[in-house]
Every structure is written in C-alpha cells, then in structure tokens.
Amino acid sequence: MPKPVLAIVGRPNVGKSTIFNRIVGERIAIVEDKPGVTRDRIYSSAEWLNKEFNIIDTGGIEINDEPLMVQMRYQAELAIEEADVICFIVNGREGITSADEEVAQILFRSKKPIVLGVNKMDDPSMHDRLYEFYSLGIGDPKPISGSHGIGLGDLLDEVIKQFPSQTEDVYDEDTIRISIIGRPNVGKSSLTNAILGEERVIVSDIPGTTRDAIDTPFSKDGQDYVVIDTAGMRKKGKVYESTEKYSVLRALRAIERSDVVLMVINGEEGMIEQDKKIAGYAHEAGRAVILVVNKWDVVEKDDKTMLNFEQKLREEFLYLSYAPIIFLSAKTKRRMQHLLPLVNEVSENHNLRVQTHVLNDVIVDAVTMNPAPTDNGGKRLRINYATQVAVAPPTFVLFVNDPELLHFSYRRFLENKIRETFNFKGTPIRIIARKKN
Ligand code: GDP
Ligand code: GDP
C-alpha cells in the first residue's frame, strides 16, 4: 500500500526541479478549485509504466544560510532517510565538482540504490562527456536532458527496477490507519494520548516497522486502528527537521499512509495557509478527512461561537465540504468520546460501495431534473451509464458521449446528487467521464 519513494538530489541549478516537473507531469486536477499543494513542487505522486511512486525534490527544502556543502549534506541525508531510491543529478556541462564527489560518497555509503543522471545532455554529440562521471563510483551515468525531456524514460526504467519489490504494509486491511495532522502546538500529541487513553483501548506493542513511523496500533471494541504519528519522536537535531517544508513533507507522507486524516485546528487561533495546503493534499490524495477543532475548552463561547467558527472553516475549506467538524478538547477530554465513532463512520463511508442500479437511478433523476447545458457548438453531455469502479475513495465512472462536455459545475451538481442519496460524509468522491464505445 505505501508507495515507494524516489528522492532527487543534486547541486543547485543542475536541473532537479526541471526533472521533477517532467516526471510529475501536468497532473490532471481532480477539482478545479484545487488547493494547490501540488504547485509547491517538493513532493508529488508520479507514475511510470503503471508503477506508482512518490517523488521528493530535496532541493526544494531549503536550509537557509548554510554553505553549499552543508546544504548538500543535509539533502543527501534527507534523501537517505526518506527514499527507497535516490536519483543523483549532476551537470554534464560542468563536469564533476568537489561537492558532487562528496555527495556521491555519502550516498554510496548509505547503500541505498542510486541512479546517476547526467543532465543538460541536450544532444547526443555531448555523450562523450559521460565517461568522466564513472569516476564518482556510483554506477552507470545516464545521459538526460530535463528541459528537452530526453533520456528520462531510461532513467525511470532504472529507478523502477531498483524499487523494493513490495513495500509491505504491516497492518491488515481492516485496520483503520489514522494520521493526526496540524501545525506545531495545536495538540496533536495530546489528541493521540487522549485517543489512546480512552478506557478499554488496548495499545498493542507491535513496533512500527516502516521507516518513518512511530505508529501506535491499538484496538477498541473489536476494531483495530493505528495512529500514525507526525509530531515526531525521531532523531532530533537535524537541521532540515526544523524547516517548515520538511514538516509539510512529513505530514504528506503520513497522510499518504493513512485512511482517515484528522486535521487538527487550534480553536483559539483558527487556520493558517499551511493547514489549507495540507488539508488540500489529503483531499487530492483521496483520504477521508475529519476537521478536529481542538482546545475548545479555552475558547470563550456563546451560542453562536461554534456556528461562526464552522462557517469560517467551511469558507476556508470549500473543497472539504464533506468533512465533518468536531469541536473537542484533548485536555479536558470533552467530546473525545465522539471522535472514534466518527472515525469509524467516515472510514465506512470511504469504503462504501453503492448498488449500480440505485446509482443509475440517481443519475437519471438528476439529469431529468437538470440536463447538462449545451456547449458553444450546441453539443450536450449525454450520460449512458454510471458505475462505481473503486472505493477509498469511492470512484465513479460515467460513460458519456463526449468526456470533454462534463464541466466542473455539472460535475459538482452530480456529486451533490450522489451525496444526497448515499452517505459519503467524510470522504471525497471521484467522478470520471469516459467515452462510451
Ligand atoms: P535545480 O536548482 O537543480 O532545481 O535546477 P533547475 O531545474 O531550476 O534548473 C536550473 C537551470 O538549468 C534552469 O535555467 C533550467 O532551465 C536549466 N536546465 C534544466 N535542465 C536542463 C537541460 O536538460 N538542458 C539545459 N540546457 N538546461 C537545463
Ligand atoms: P502538538 O505540538 O500539536 O503535538 O501539540 P501538543 O499536544 O504538544 O500540545 C501543545 C500544547 O497545547 C500543550 O501545552 C498542551 O497541553 C496544550 N493542549 C493540547 N490540547 C489542548 C486542549 O484541548 N485544551 C487546552 N487548553 N490545551 C491543550
């Protein structure tokens, strides 16, 4: 279930972000009011030959004011810690620099699979320069051109070959994996403790085995869960760990591994831009989401406070209109008892499979009531048939006369109709249009 990770390492200006963008491609936005995490471009999912993986541009995690060599060391360490395969990029026009040599040594010692990409080889006449790079001692240099998109296929072939055959997930399918996300001090650890401290919760002592996990498995009322921690108990003191982008990266990785994301918001402060980015990622990744407003005990309240806060949250998180909001206090435990039942409910909805005939009734009714508008050329979307093709998140395929005719607002309309009929509270749903044959 967890996807393998590729990290790109290299000196500034060798072309890392160009290559990153090439590999990631212009991914089709699932929603149009999209929150834009993917524009941040340090971490993204990608695919090559039907193999899905995640990719990190370590150069995007800047460590301020450090000399080049120190920065390079951090980048390399970060890659070693986070990635299954490291793609080391050098500049074919400049040749080997001492920074390259040092990074190559660090990477080599880590014993992680390394693929060496020699960039800016824009035309084949430059390929003689490749041989020099054998002296880095980390394998066959692959000539590439990020800006021209040359050689990336061969590079990725090699990367994929080096991925571990199976990144195993230690938890069985019925385990609900919960990540608790939010910026420092919102109460993530307190919330984790409050969940675990509930009566009749049995904390199992299976140690987390995945590399970045301080996972705490537990069960309650016969349901297995695991809390994936991001607050972190990992080796402290690494410079990159204190950078904001790195903490975002870790949050994204935890989201990736989870089924249900608890997005924790400080009731005293409301949300900030970074919360939105992270929540947006959870949405794009298709995870179930609950907005947890913590520290509600210290908020001065009257009978409108909750409603006002909720309204503000809804405005900030338009694309998360399906996410339930729970107001609680991890400290006083007020309303804590409602949290796990809500987790169970959204998890169930996330895995909900609807009956095809009911789904088609809903679509037919929706279309009858409000036919799709015609486009400029007078063409109108016709939906022949709908079917659910996946769960987690529930994904629907509409077979239509012309997929291009399914526009954002009509897609929204159909989504709302589907949501009115089925209980998809807490889960994103996806609607894909396919041309009927
Ligand atoms: P980063 O700092 O390693 O992320 O490097 P960038 O991706 O920002 O690229 C640095 C510069 O090199 C930019 O001006 C790119 O347009 C250029 N560049 C990237 N890839 C190539 C390439 O394959 N050939 C050439 N000629 N220039 C490239
Ligand atoms: P984290 O950094 O997100 O893991 O946050 P912590 O769980 O360490 O909490 C940060 C601070 O907020 C600590 O001093 C907690 O005692 C406090 N805190 C956490 N939850 C609550 C709450 O529900 N109410 C109040 N009043 N304080 C809380």
Q: CATH topology of the largest domain, which one? A: Rossmann fold
User: Portion of residues in helices?
Assistant: 25-40%
- In the sheet with the most strands, the strands line up as 8-9-10-7-11-12-13
CATH architecture of the largest domain: 3-Layer(aba) Sandwich
In total, the number of domains comes to 3
Q: Could you name the CATH homologous superfamily of the largest domain?
A: P-loop containing nucleotide triphosphate hydrolases
End-to-end separation: 32 Å
Q: Choose one word for the global shape.
A: globular
CATH class of the largest domain: Alpha Beta
Largest sheet: 7 strands, mixed
* Mean pLDDT level: 87
Bound molecule types: guanosine-5'-diphosphate
Instruction: Give the number of helices.
Output: 11
- DSSP strand content: 15-25%
The total count of strands amounts to 16
Order of helices and strands: EHEEHEHEEHEHEEEHEHEHEHHEEHE
Structure, described:
By secondary structure, the protein is an alpha/beta fold. It has eleven helices and 16 strands. Strand 2 (43-48) and strand 3 (51-57) form a beta hairpin. Helix 2 (68-82) packs parallel to helix 3 (98-110), helix 6 runs parallel beside helix 7 and helix 10 (356-369) packs across helix 11. It is globular and about 70 Å long. Bound molecules: guanosine-5'-diphosphate (2 copies). Residues 182, 184-190, 231, 294-295, 297-298, 329-331 line the site of one guanosine-5'-diphosphate. Residues 10, 12-18, 59, 119-120, 122, 145-148 line the site of one guanosine-5'-diphosphate (GDP).
